[in-house]
Amino acid sequence: MLRLLLVVIIAYLLGSIPFGYLIVRRKIGADVRETGSGGTGATNVSRRAGKAAGVSTLLLDALKGAVAVEMARVVAGPSLSSQWIVTAAAIAVIVGHIFPVWLRFRGGKGVATGVGVFLMLAPIALLCAGVLFVAIVAFTRYVSLGSTIAATTIPLFVWLQTVFVTPIADLRPLLTAALVGALLIIFAHRGNIGRLAQGTESKI
Predict the structure, then answer these.
(1) Dihedral through CA 173, CA 177, CA 180, CA 183, nearest 10?
(2) Is residue 162 part of a domain?
């Protein structure tokens, strides 16, 4: 129980590091949340401070997710409950990114951090969702639409990966991480979804 609590706290605090906010603040002295979608993620950072800043944000946010999962694996060790501890870390780091304590719980959308998480947990599923994301964005020019649809399909691709590629004895922890992660990302995009429905969402 102590290990689980420790992992959740560390993963949340790691996820809370607002790289996009810090990059924009340092580069142009502004709060990235005051423009665009209001998030601290790579897309909004790119619109405010340029593509290089956006790419840096994307990589650093993804790194948070990957590090949180690896940290949980090291702390959990080979115990029977280790998979659930990793699942808790995966969820906590995404929660931290979306609701960072340092920014009064107003952060990003969780997509890049989720990429880092599932790069470690289910890389083939992530690749499939990534291909879908690229296709949707290329066709519609809406990053938010590609992100929400890709997030929605992650649990399906996780299940397909475990059935046809890398079977595992207990799918529940990984599928829980995929389902909760997808729900968090969709929730974080609720404003974007509303603008998509109204036809006022910004394109790239």
Answers:
(1) -140
(2) yes
Number of domains composing the chain = 1
Q: Which amino acid is at 144?
A: S
Residue burial 74-85, b: 16+ Cβ < 10 Å; e: rest: ebbeeeeebbbb
> Could you tell me how far CA 145 lies from the centroid of its own chain?
15
Identify the H or E element spanning 81: none
CB contact at 8 A, 35 and 44: yes
Q: What angle do CA 63, 68, 69 make, to 5 degrees?
A: 105
pLDDT digits 0-9 by tens, 94-149: 999 999 999 989 899 999 999 999 999 999 999 999 999 999 999 999 999 999 99
Does some domain include residue 61?
yes
Q: Domain range holding 23?
A: 2-198
Q: Which residues of 3-24 are buried (b: 16+ CB within 10 A; e: fewer)?
A: bbeebbebbbbbbbbbbbbebb
203 part of a folded domain: no
pTM of the model: 0.94
The distance of Cα 126 from the centroid of its chain, to the nearest Å, equals 11
Residue whose token pair is 């665009």: 36
Radius of gyration of the chain (CA): 17
Is 141 among the domain residues?
yes
